[in-house]
């Protein structure tokens, strides 16, 4: 059974005390919502000890169940498309991937002329990956690691910001690391997705058994929608969002036409299950 901290009494992301219960999911996890910034989050949250144990085996589990398991070229292709978008706003320079996983993004960044560095939670996995790739990849508490400030042209958070207990510290750290005009890339699940709204409707009609399963509360602690995150970054963290759209999700067997449609959706209204944004440090 999970261990939990004491309940939060204010929003981590905007410091507002105006938080209230929003939903209890099928696992009995309480989801709160901030009345100020509208971000949703688990409350109370898992203990540090529980999370450390969970993430010690996370990479092996994620690799086994990843939608692109063994589709190495497709994974690299997706990161290449993301970097193409980033390069519209900043030239290749120093690149830091926070939560780099198996390092596909680092490999692609290096191929495109970036100077890549990575970060991962598990120290044993990180040491092995750093040796395999011949790159600087660090572990530990990300917000406590010492990096040169204002030194990076891009900080890359691909499905990361929903995981930590202290996303505000992550965003502040990213801001400090970036040069002026540097790009913060974020992709994460969309709690306001059309599919989520459909599931909520089915819950109201008592036609869906696992209430709130779309929160993925077994691993995610904070829950974002595209426009709440955009507002938060611009009002509280001194970023300017320069691109907002749907996250790209291809399948290995998809036709070229299907991929073209998905690529168009990457720049359209963010209604899909996950979204992405590029935010410039101003």
Tell me the name of the CATH class of the domain at 67-197 and 224-281: Alpha Beta
Kindly, what is the distance between the CA atoms of the first and last residues, rounded to a whole number of angstroms? 44 Å
Second-tier CATH architecture of the domain at 67-197 and 224-281: 3-Layer(aba) Sandwich
- What is the arithmetic mean of pLDDT? 95
* Sheet with most strands: 7 strands, mixed
Fourth-level CATH superfamily of the domain at 67-197 and 224-281: Vaccinia Virus protein VP39
* Total beta strands: 11
Shape: globular
Share in β-strands: 15-25%
SS element count, helices = 9
* Radius of gyration over all CA atoms, rounded: 18 Å
CATH topology of the domain at 67-197 and 224-281: Rossmann fold
Q: Helix proportion of residues, in percent?
A: 25-40%
Low-confidence stretches: none
This entry's quaternary arrangement is: single chain
Could you describe the 3D structure shown?
The chain has 282 residues and is an alpha/beta fold. The chain has a domain at 67-197 and 224-281: Vaccinia Virus protein VP39 (Rossmann fold, 3-Layer(aba) Sandwich), CATH 3.40.50.150. It is 33% helix and 23% strand. The protein has nine helices and eleven strands. Strands 6-5-4-7-8-11-10 form a seven-stranded mixed β-sheet, sandwiched between helices. β7, α6 and β8 form a beta-alpha-beta unit. The longest helix has 15 residues, at 72-86. 35% of the residues are buried. The model has no long low-confidence stretch (mean pLDDT 95).
């Amino acid at each position: 059974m999970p261990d939990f901290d004491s309940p939060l009494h204010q929003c981590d992301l905007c410091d507002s005390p105006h938080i209230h219960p929003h939903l209890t999911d099928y696992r009995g996890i309480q989801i709160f919502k901030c009345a100020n910034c509208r971000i949703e989050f688990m409350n109370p949250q898992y203990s540090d000890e529980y999370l450390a144990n969970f993430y010690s085996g996370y990479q092996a589990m994620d690799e086994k169940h990843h939608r692109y398991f063994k589709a190495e070229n497709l994974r690299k292709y997706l990161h290449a498309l993301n970097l193409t978008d980033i390069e519209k706003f900043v030239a290749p320079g120093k690149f830091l991937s926070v939560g780099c996983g198996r390092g596909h993004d680092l490999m692609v960044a290096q191929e495109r002329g970036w100077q890549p560095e990575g970060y991962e939670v598990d120290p044993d996995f990180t040491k092995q990956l750093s040796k395999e790739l011949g790159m600087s990849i660090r572990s530990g508490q990300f917000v406590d690691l010492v990096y040169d400030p204002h030194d990076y042209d891009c900080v890359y958070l691909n499905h990361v910001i929903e995981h930590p207990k202290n996303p505000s510290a992550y965003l502040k750290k990213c801001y400090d690391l970036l040069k002026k005009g540097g790009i913060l890339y974020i992709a994460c699940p969309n709690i306001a997705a059309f599919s989520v709204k459909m599931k909520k409707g089915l819950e109201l009609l008592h036609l869906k058994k696992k209430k709130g399963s779309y929160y993925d509360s077994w691993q995610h602690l904070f829950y974002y929608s595209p426009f709440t995150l955009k507002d938060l970054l611009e009002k509280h963290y001194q970023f300017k969002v320069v691109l907002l759209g749907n996250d790209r999700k291809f399948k290995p067997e998809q036709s070229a036409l299907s991929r073209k449609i998905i690529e168009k959706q990457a720049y359209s209204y963010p209604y899909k299950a996950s979204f992405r944004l590029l935010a410039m440090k101003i």
